[in-house]
Amino acid sequence: MMSTIECTIQFAVSRFGLAPNNGQSYSFVKQWWKDVKNCVGGVGLPAIENALNPFSLGIGTAADAASSMSQASLAGAASWSVSQGLTVPLRSSIVRAGVGSAETFGKLSGVATMANVVYGLGAGVVAEWNGCL
Amino acid sequence: MISDTQRTTHIRSRVRDFVLYIAIGLAFVGVLIVVAQMGVSQDVYIRWGGLALNTAILFGYFIADSRQFFRRWQFWALTAVLLSVHLAGFIVVLTHVAEWKLLWFMVILFEFPVLVFFRNRLQRSS
């Protein structure tokens, strides 16, 4: 019984004439696919998982914490304006600093999260290069 | 209603952005291949590369957020001190822990309000 991949490869071989008479190209494609599967599945993905899957602090947890801090900064600015009886809160430099900090902190948390995820994917590339090539 | 000129400008800027994204992606993969060829281990890549990346992001945002302080030497002295403390702390931690995960660097985010706090004290003292 042939697998889907083998069927696909055989179709590509017959449709596009990739195989010479002795079927060497077919073997090459089959071997190439096997190598890719072993390399990505056996080396790359575990490296990415190892980099991005900490057991105590996940991407969601970190983003939630960053979001909470961002909100806390805004809440602090708001409570300060109330305690000072400011009718136009944004006139206060302290409130402006709090709000400005919250905005930058929000951006920083988003960029840092994405950068770390991309860097973690890079760990997979390095592992594959060292382990497969 | 968008004019033809605006549409052309929009398409050009989108194309330029996509070319930039692809170029940055290829450059990143190129750097990764060079790093791999240099024989850098996975552990070194995660610990020290991760520290460099996250430090650059944190202090990059902090400095970009402090444009009004650029002309004051006290700000740069404060930034240098904070950077030294940050690096010293992480070097001590990273050289002593047996295991370090990339996403644990997200704790660096909590340094940002501290940096802003010290910077704002600088503002108040002047």
Q: Count of helices of chain A?
A: 4
Shape of chain B: flat
How many beta-strand segments of chain B? Answer: 0
> Quaternary arrangement of the chains shown?
heterodimer
Q: How many alpha or pi helices of chain B?
A: 4
Give the N-to-C terminal Cα separation of chain A: 31 Å
Strand content of chain B: under 5%
How would you characterize the overall build of this protein?
The complex is a heterodimer of chains A (133) and B (126). In chain A, 80% of the residues lie in helices and 0% in strands. By secondary structure, chain A is mainly alpha-helical. Chain A has one domain (4-131). In chain A, helix 1 (4-16) packs across helix 2 (24-52) and helix 2 runs antiparallel to helix 4. Chain B starts with a helix and ends with a helix. In chain B, helix 2 (42-64) packs antiparallel against helix 3 (73-96) and helix 3 (73-96) runs antiparallel to helix 4. The longest helix of chain B is centred in the first third of the chain and has 34 residues, at 4-37. The model of chain B has no long low-confidence stretch (mean pLDDT 89). Chains A and B meet through helix 2, helix 3 and helix 4 of A and helix 1, helix 2 and helix 4 of B.
Layout of SSEs?
The complex is a heterodimer of chains A (about 130) and B (about 130).
Chain A: H1 4-16, H2 24-52, H3 59-83, H4 93-132
Chain B: H1 4-37, H2 42-64, H3 73-96, H4 111-125
Helix pairs in contact in B: 2-3, 3-4
List keywords for this structure.
heterodimer; A: 133 residues; mainly alpha; 4 helices; B: 126 residues; 76% helix; flat
Task: Describe this structure in a few short sentences.
The complex is a heterodimer of chains A (133) and B (126). Chain A has one domain.
